[in-house]
UniProtKB/TrEMBL annotation:
Record's protein name: TatD related DNase
Keyword Metal-binding attributed: yes
Keywords: Hydrolase, Metal-binding
Protein family per UniProt: Belongs to the metallo-dependent hydrolases superfamily.
GO molecular function, one term: hydrolase activity, acting on ester bonds
UniProt key word Metal-binding: yes
Amino acid sequence: MNYIDPHIHMVSRTTDDYQRMAYAGCAAISEPAFWAGFDRGTAAGFHDYFRQLTQYEPKRAAQFHIRHYSWLCINAKEAENVSLSREVIALIPEFLKEPTVLGIGEIGLNKNTRNEATVFQEHLDLAAKTDELVLIHTPHLEDKLKGTRMIVDMLKGDSRVKPHRVCVDHVEEHTVRLALDNGFWCGMTLYPTTKCTPARACDIIEMVGTDRIMANSAGDWGKSDPLAVPELIQEMRRRGHPEAAVRKVVYENPLNFWRQANNWVEWADAPAAGAKAGY
C-alpha cells in the first residue's frame, strides 16, 4: 500500500532513509520548517534553510520517486526571540509561491510562553492575509493539554481562521477531540517517548474514527523512525481494520488536506478527491 508521511524532517535524515521509505511505499512527504538541532542566530540562516526546503530537498526526494512538499515558519522552539521571529516571518512571503510550499507551519507552542503565543499569532496573521494552510505544533508531555487549549483558543479567537484549513498535529488521547470537535484536521505523531506509538495511534483511531485524522513519523534529530507510518499500517491490519480505512488514514486524508493548498497541482496518478480506492 502506498502511503504519505505528512510530517517528517528530512533535512535531518540520510539519503538512505529516502531509499528505505521508497521501498516501503512512500508516495509523498511534507516537511515543516523546524529546529536545526541548535538555535539559529540570524534571519539569513533561515533564508538559506527555506531555500533548502523549497529547492534542494524536492530534488533529493525525487531521486526515489517521492514527492516532497514543505511548510514555512520559525518554529516554537526558537520563537522566544520575538525580534528574530519577526525578521523570519518577513522572509516567508518570498517563498510562498514556490510550487512545493503547502502553507505556514509548523507553528505553535513549546513551553506555552507569552512570547511563543505572540509569534504564533503573528504567523496566523500572515496565513490569514495570504490564505495559506496552517500546520500546528502542540507541546510535549505535561505541557500538551494546556498548550493545545491555548492554541485552540487563539485559533477560535481569530475570525479569519478557517478550521478546515488547519491541521493540529501531535494529538494524543487527551487532545484529539479538542482538534476534531472544533472542526480542525489532526495528526498523530508516531514518535518514541514524547508522542504516540503505532498501537496508541490505532487506539485513537478506534476511539474517534478515521475522519480528518492522519499519521506521521516526524523523523527528526531525535530518536525517531522514518518508517513509523508503515508500522501503523501493519498495526491496523493486525487488528482487522479494512484496507479502505487504513488507506484513508495514511494516504487519502493527508492528500485531501493538501489539496486545499494555494499551489496545489493534482497528481496524474492520485485518486480524485472523494474517490473510493479500489482493491
